């Protein structure tokens, strides 16, 4: 250390707040410098006097304040209210997977109603319908005319 330490450095050294390199340099300087050692000892005596005054003037908390502190601590340790429990369930860690499961269940349920809810028509119906339409067209070649068209009965029942 090339210069004498400041009072702030003495205080930091006394409370162990210097970096290891600075701490070692100051300790070495105090061994060789009498005036700095006396300044440091003055700082030590002042620190001890302040500490003893603080311990002597320490007072107890009034009983009412102490009781209110303990009641606040006990109320904080009670079981959470229903709103606090609901808020716990609505945390993203819980709410997001639950919402995803509900969306998947709703989608699966909606998709199943689309396939099972709509009426289906058998393929034989389409084949019979096609055969009826092609046979009823009178001007097609190879058309088979239904026998119902050959009757001479009118709509009023006369032949």
Kindly report how far apart the N and C termini lie: 138 Å
Mean pLDDT: 79
Tally of contiguous helical segments:
7
**H and E string:** HHHHHHH
Biggest sheet statistics: none
- Overall outline: elongated
Strand percent estimate: under 5%
Content-based structural category: mainly alpha
Give the helix proportion (percent range): 55-70%
Radius of gyration: 50 Å
E-strand count: 0
Fold and architecture overview:
The model has no long low-confidence stretch (mean pLDDT 79). The chain is mostly helical and 159 residues long. Among the domains are: 7-60, no CATH class; 85-138, no CATH class. α1 crosses α3 (34-56) and α2 (20-32) crosses α3. It is built from 7 helices and no strands. The chain is elongated.
Topology summary:
Elements: H1 7-14, H2 20-32, H3 34-56, H4 63-76, H5 82-89, H6 92-117, H7 123-136
Helix pairs in contact: 1-3, 2-3
Distinctive features:
159 residues; mainly alpha; 7 helices; 67% helix; 0% strand
